[in-house]
Amino acid sequence: MSTAFSEEQRDCLQELINVAMGLASDKLARFLNTFVHLQVPAIELVNSVQIPAQFEARYSHTEAALISQGFLGNDGLRGEAIVLYQLDNAHRIAALLGYDTDSASELEMLTDISSILTTTFLNGLADQIDNSLSYSAPRVLSSRQNNVPEALQETAVHWELALKVDISYQLVDHSFNCDMLLLIPGEAVLNIQQILDRILEEY
Amino acid sequence: MALPVLICDDSLLARKQVRKSLPESFDAEFLTAGNGVEALAILRSQEIGLVFLDLTMPELDGIGVLEAIKQDGLDCFVIVISADIQPEMQKRVTELGALAFIHKPVNPEKLVVILKQYGLI
Fold first, then answer.
1. d(CA A166, CA A143)
2. Is the pLDDT score of A1 beyond 70?
3. B17 Cα to chain A: minimum distance (Å)
4. Considering only alpha carbons, which residue of chain B is nearest residue A127?
5. How many CB atoms lie within 10 A of CB A44?
6. Of A108, A125, A98, which is closest to residue A180 (Cα–Cα)?
7. Quick one: which of B3, B96, B114 has its CA closest to B55?
8. ipTM of this predicted complex?
């Protein structure tokens, strides 16, 4: 985690994210009709210029899909959530869910999953900080993408900061990995710090 | 007499949230643990009447703690307070002997209902 947060603020943000992720996992489990092992998501705040390089290693030898959804709330809360998927195991999940296994159906499935993850996660986060969000429709930034850093570069350039939320789901019989990136404007750090301090003051 | 209560969660905020959700009339002496290993060390060395237990934790998770409590025959009530709210998980912790399963963030009214139900307040 960046030095932008104190240890107490980091703990607070992590707990807010854990709770939101628990809600998203439950929704995903119901959608996939299976049990998902929930791990504590690793979170990190980074400058968005660093983002492409950070994902280079993980996505360099695999096809990936990137799906984006914008969000907007009260008090200037806004950003863009990007979910990245490795397509290796998407075929199996698509078959499991009864989607056709052609690439268009696979993308439809990933768009559905992104929408569930993003909106449930962000609503869970917003609820805890007494905010409420609206969303744009999920948008496929790229599919069958062999150059993830480049695709990320094009989007990340519009924002100064990114909150990385590293999500790894283990389904009962399948592994399912994705990364969520919350791209946010630079001034958001101050906002987030104030929100965290307000919560910390309550306890 | 004050009830010895252990609050086990890796998050400081979550531990404080539990503490703050309890009514003032709840006469307890509080201990805290940041993971399952710490919790078991406390549970094995002293009498604890009630444990508030998180599930997703480093070192040893809440399921591991429940299994150890059962295996060692430790005599304490356990209320699970978790962000992992899948029905399957609720079933597992109940089967392992937890009294109740509360979703995070903890709702003080629900907590009071459960504590009353088991005669803890």
1. 20
2. no
3. 7
4. B105
5. 13
6. A125
7. B96
8. 0.92
